[in-house]
Amino acid sequence: MLNSKYYKGFEGEPALVLDNGENKLIIWNGYFESILESLLETNLEKEGIIKEYFYHEGWYDDSPWALKDIQLTIKQLKNFDLSKVYQSDNIKNVLPDLVQEIIQFLEYAKNENVVITYD
Questions:
Q1: CA distance 107 to 101
Q2: β pairing state of 24-28 and 2-6
Q3: Which of 8, 19, 68, 84 could lock 41 by a disulfide, CB 3.0 to 4.6 Å apart?
């Protein structure tokens, strides 16, 4: 299944693709970075996907990049706090649903390989 709901209207701009070999979730990079930026504002350790974002490693350097700890990423995303997002209301209105879709995608694929492609 291909889900590009969170990329519609942003065609031609950078995208991130979560891919488990069977399903793909395509996300406008601005949404994804807003989520990760807000997670940096929490008390979470800079490990896993947050570390990769903070240091601009992972999918920035090696695309596709294997998401090594899916459970950790799910745990981190469950700490998403909309009050830590400093973007426009248009972006803020989308993020809670997007975070839930990413969590669902990862929970479904938690026993599989998930890669992130930066396009």
A1: 10
A2: parallel
A3: 84
> 115, 64 in Cβ contact below 8 A?
yes
Q: What are φ and ψ of residue 9, in 5° steps?
A: 90, -10
Longest dimension (CA), the chain: 36
61 CB burial (10 A radius; 0-12, 13-18, 19+):
exposed
With 0.90 as the threshold, say if the pTM is over it.
Answer: yes
- The CA-atom distances, in angstroms, between 7 and each of 2, 17, 31, 68, 92 are 11, 10, 9, 24, 15
Lookup: tokens for 111: 């026993």
**Beta strand segments in 29-84, E:** 65-66
